[in-house]
């Protein structure tokens, strides 16, 4: 039984590559950030510089922000071979110059965040 439903219209950040079909198997992490009102441009400016630190292993799938529905919401979609590779990739980001600075400047902009691990269905172009 459907208890509730929420819709959002999302746009992709211009600095993030468009999601493309990929071979698997992969797991996906959807990280959702609820930002403080008025901070979307600042968030985007920091992430435009920082996303390069997370593209070396091809884990960056997409970055989106809300236009209709709950506003000041950002979604990042990441692909990993396993939970172990997720942990290794996230830990290695801290070794890259500039990553700490991005986290330092963006964390104060966040009201709350969520992380979901997702497994693609067999019909999904993202495997």
TrEMBL record:
Gene Ontology biological process terms from the UniProt entry: mitophagy
GO cellular component: mitochondrion
InterPro entries to which the protein is assigned, alphabetical: Dimeric_a/b-barrel, NIPSNAP, NipSnap_domain
Top-level taxonomic group: Eukaryota
A Pfam family it matches: NIPSNAP
Domain NIPSNAP per the UniProt entry, residue ranges: 28-125
Record family assignment: Belongs to the NipSnap family.
Protein's UniProt name: Protein NipSnap 1
Species of origin: Liparis tanakae (Tanaka's snailfish)
